[in-house]
Structure formats: structure tokens, C-alpha cells
Amino acid sequence: MAAETLHSAPPTRPANPRVVAAGAVGSIVEYFDFGVYGYVATILATHFFVSGDDTAGLLATLATFAVAFALRPVGGVVFGHIGDRYGRKNALAATVVLMAGASGLIGVLPTYAAIGVGATAVLVLARCLQGIAAGGELGGAASFVAEHSPPERRGLYCSTTQTGALVGALLAALCVSLLNSTLGAGAMEDWGWRVPFLIAIPLGVVGLLIRAKLSDTPSFKEAEEAGETGKAGEQARAPFAEALRTHRGPLLLCVGLSILLFSAYYVFYVYTNIHLQTVVGLSANVAFWSTSATLAVSAACMPLFGALSDRVGRRPVLIGASVAAILLPLPGFMLFEAGTGWAVLSHIVMGLIDSALMGVALSTFAEMFPTRIRYTGIALGFNLGSAVAGGTSPYLCTWLVDVTGSALAPAWFVIATALITLVAAVKLKETVGAELSGS
């Protein structure tokens, strides 16, 4: 599964800062949108779902959150096809526009009280559009940045794309926290929840402008000239089919490695915010600021994990993060009950598990697929993992706590997904330093 070498020499200069920014900006928009939905889930439950049971309303809201993840693999196939045949740049421009538009739709959507079940239906539609856009985002961004990066720095540069994901989530948490603090609970519940969804529109415009000014990657251009992509490439007419036919092993490994990444992300950065309020009993402000601190530390450390993988390899970092995810969640969730200081510290430490995984994942995945199907391969494997353990995580954790009555139930969920990823990490063949393959 190690990448074969291109006939041309690998790049020897650092990636253009604009390339790094173009890779990160879509992730910022995507995870800002996804983060906002999770952080205002308790408010959305009262506006778009009718139920006398608060838990049932919250579960319905989180189920809608999960719907987007079921469509992420579809988005990965659609945008992967566009990106592998017609260029990474075109596909990435489309994903950022679709994501921002769908988020803006939620921001202006009338509530259930105004138009009845139609409000619920449009909310679900908007989430579906976000899921399709998200499915095409990171696979393309990873391909774009990886193909512009020198082999010896690929882990570092690709980690910046995932850092964008945490920056987006951090901005979402900060935005909701500031609105809660300045508007108060009443105004926030009445209309303030719409503001962060509307902010995604100018963010999307900025992302589009940055991406529109860049040319496609050297690897894609070389493959296109060689007749391996575009109209001249018979195999590349169906990147999805070729990925399934010739790269099933890497696809399965990509799914396995993604499962813990997504479960940890949505448990530690989204669900824990809900858990600290509804189970531990901390105030919304404390929960939001704890989440913000966790995201800030994780985002700052992610490039360090990417750079570490350039020195010691992708495999050791992935194995280490998986072992940490088996050992730390139980004591971590216990410490949530030990007081505010311990809760915040525990939250930050557990967030570093996902920081390590995210810092290494995209460079690893890029090295597992050849140029002509790289976008599709990353997007498909990554998003299948997200569909299994991403959007379902907040729902399952809320449901498990309600059914079992145990505040530790979410920890066991993370441990179960960590065991799957540990097996995949052990089976992974080291690819650090490999030149990206063209065939």
C-alpha cells in the first residue's frame, strides 16, 4: 500500500502559503457550520421539533445532525469524481459555496410554530446539503495540499487543513459563547441562534475568493497530460469504480482509521458540551468556554503532531493516539464530576487524542492512493468512517446516558471505536516520505 513514485521529481520547496490557506479555509467553513448546529442543539430542539419530552426533542435534533453524515459518502463520490476528472480546484470551489448556502438557509428558516412540519423538513434538507458538501471537502483539500507539498513536510502541511476544521469549530464555540454572554438566554433562544448560521455566508465568500485565485496541483496536471484523467482517461471515467476495484485494502484502512477520529471529534468537541450541561450540571457558559479552550489547545498542537509524523512516521502516532483513546476516556469522564477546574482540564486532555489523529490522518490517506483516484479514495474512505461514527456520536451518547443512567457510557463508546482504529493502525504500512504515485 505504499505509494509508488511519480516519474517526475517531487517538489523541493515549501508549499505556497496560499495553497495552505485554500486547504484550510473550506474546513473552517465546514466545521463552523457543523459546530454551530451541535452547540445550539438544545435551542433548535424547541424551535423545530414538537415534543413534551426534552430528551426526545434533543434526540430528534441530533438525529437530524446525523442525517448529514449519511450523505457525506455520496458527496465524496460526487465531488471526488469531479475533482479526479476535472481538477481539485473546481470541486473545492463548489463545496464551499454549497456549505455556506445551506448554513445560511438554516439561519433564515421559519420555525415549526410559524410553518409547521415544513420547517422540520427544510431543516433536514439543509442538513442533507451540508452533508453532501462536507463529503467533498476534506478529500479534495487533502489532495490539493498533499500534491503541493514536499514529501518530508507533507504531514505538517496536511495537518493545517485539519487545523482549519478545529479553528472552524472553535470559532463556532466562541461565537455561541459570546452570543450567550451578551444577549442572554431569552434573546439567544428567540433570535440569537440564527446569527452564527448567517455568519457562514461571508465566510463562504472569503473561501471562494481564496480558492478561485489558485491553479490546480502539479500532480493532477501531470496526470491529465499523461492521459490518466479527464476525457482521455478510460479508467478515470469512473474513479469510484476504480477505487473499489483496485484499492479496496486502502479504502478499508481509511475507514478504520477514520472511525475513532470522528467519534472522538464529535464526543469531545460537540457532545461533551451537551454532557457538561445536561448530565454534570455546569452552566452553558462554563461548558462553552471549556469547549473553546479544548479546541484552541487541540488546534495549536495539531501541526506539532503532523510534524512529529514526518519524523517518526504516521503509524506510531496513530497507534499512540488509539491507545490513549482506550486508556483515558473513563478517568476523563469521571473527572467531569470533580469540579469545574478538573472538568476543563480533563476536557482539554481528551481533546488532544483527536488532535493527534487529525494531525496525521490526511497525509496518511493521501499517500495511500494514486493521483487519478486520490480525491475519490480519500473522500470515500474518510466519509464512510464519518457516517459510521461521526454524526451518530452525539445521538448515541445522549441515548446511552438516558438508557443506562450512567454518565460514563460515552467513554465506553469512544473506547469501542478506538479498538477498531487500533487494529487498522497496526495493519497500516508506513508511507512517510513516499512520493505521491501517479499510477
Could you write a compact summary of the structure shown?
This protein is an all-alpha fold. It contains 18 helices and no strands. The radius of gyration is 21 Å and the shape is globular.
Note the main sheet: none
Portion of residues in beta strands equals under 5%
CATH superfamily: MFS general substrate transporter like domains
CATH architecture: Up-down Bundle
**Percent helix:** over 70%
**The number of domains:** 1
Mean pLDDT: 85
pLDDT < 50 runs, ≥5 residues: 1-12, 231-235
Cα gyration radius (Å): 21 Å
Coarse morphology: globular
**Helix/strand class:** mainly alpha
Report how far apart the termini are: 12 Å
Task: Could you tell me the CATH topology label.
Answer: Growth Hormone, Chain: A
**What is the oligomeric state here?**
single chain
CATH class category label = Mainly Alpha
- Element string (H = helix, E = strand): HHHHHHHHHHHHHHHHHH
Q: Would you report the number of β strands?
A: 0
